[in-house]
Amino acid sequence: MVPDDVAQDLLARSAGWVWLRLFDRSAGLETFDAVAEAAGLRRLGAGWHEIDRRTATRVLHDLLHRDLAYSAELIPSRDAARLATRFVSAVADDSSRFATNSSDRLDATSYSWHPATTHTFDGGVVVTGTHGSAVYWVADED
Question: Is residue 104 part of a domain?
Fold first, then answer.
């Protein structure tokens, strides 16, 4: 599903905590809440914000590029864009749906979210589709 080099780079995020979970179709995870719970995250119910593929890729880029607490650069933007694109391409198909925990951009001056962890800051993308589901989530502390 996700190439080993991509998974290793996603897990190597140098700040905070990382959740990378991949589920095949047999897991029967069809909702964002079901995928989140299976990955060890909180169910968000109405707190999910459904997004399109392009926005999911941008959210992943932003989470890989900078930390959530201080906006410190973690990896160059170019590398973050490559990883985000490769992850989405590996886990999504035409039927896939994407969600995150905020309707705000991560680089906005004001940012609000629905926490899926007990950490100070968290965010990520949940993917559901006919071929399976995936989640990439990160959390940071200040």
Answer: yes
pLDDT band at 14; cut points 50, 70, 90: confident
Contact 64, 84 (CB under 8 A): yes
Q: Please answer whether residues 129 and 137 qualify as being in contact, where contact means their C-beta atoms are separated by less than 8 angstroms.
A: no
User: What range does the domain containing 122 cover?
Assistant: 22-133
HSE-CB for 104 with a 13 A CA cutoff: 10
Residues facing residue 7 across a β-bridge: none
Q: Could you tell me the pTM of the whole model? A: 0.93
- Report which DSSP code applies to 73: B
Q: How does pLDDT run across 38-96, given as a tens digit for each residue?
A: 999 999 999 999 999 999 999 999 999 999 889 899 999 999 999 999 999 999 999 99
Count how many domains the chain has: 1
Angle CA(83)–CA(69)–CA(46) in degrees, nearest 5? 75
